[in-house]
Design a protein that fits this description.
A hairpin with a 5-residue loop joins strand 1 and strand 2. The longest helix has 13 residues. This protein is mainly alpha-helical. About 55% of the residues lie in helices and about 5% in strands. It has 2 domains: about 80 residues, no CATH class; about 50 residues, no CATH class.
């Protein structure tokens, strides 16, 4: 696959319908998830997250209780103060950042709390796990946010 890092977003927008249909079919394909670890490694050999940072600029992870405990300790803050300063409850009752971009994202796209980051951040973009297919709506949304997700989808379509 010839991947154009500068034009992936336009391609992802053009292929939204195709990718939605593929993800709907992929849920029923046995063994498709076995390709994910290799495709994940392949994608990240071509894509540098620090050049992009779209995830941190446009979406928020969920901050679960263990995340809040770990991050507030890392920041040397009380949990309540950390929540008040940085987080809000969303419509699902999850803590998320108050606004985008993430307040912990630096101008160099480095994460200021990387060692203590939320579990959602550590697992994002789920291109190496079964969650890629278990949560097709999120994968679909991520295909226009993260170049690695788009890359993995395109490669899977070539393989299948």
């Amino acid at each position: 696959m010839n991947f154009d890092e500068s034009n992936w977003k336009n391609e992802a927008e053009k292929k939204k319908k195709e990718n939605r249909q593929f993800l709907d079919r992929a849920k029923r394909m046995r063994g498709i998830e076995k390709h994910l670890p290799d495709l994940h490694d392949e994608a990240f050999s071509k894509i540098d997250c620090l050049k992009c940072g779209n995830c941190c600029k446009t979406i928020s992870p969920r901050f679960k209780k263990p995340d809040i405990e770990r991050i507030s300790k890392y920041l040397g803050m009380k949990q309540g103060d950390m929540i008040e300063k940085y987080l809000r409850l969303d419509e699902d009752g999850d803590y998320v950042v108050k606004k985008s971009p993430c307040p912990f994202l630096g101008s160099d796209n480095f994460c200021g709390i990387y060692e203590a980051r939320p579990r959602d951040c550590a697992n994002y973009p789920y291109t190496d796990s079964g969650e890629f297919f278990e949560r097709p709506n999120i994968t679909f949304q991520n295909s226009t946010t993260c170049p690695a997700v788009f890359y993995v989808l395109e490669r899977l379509k070539e393989i299948i």
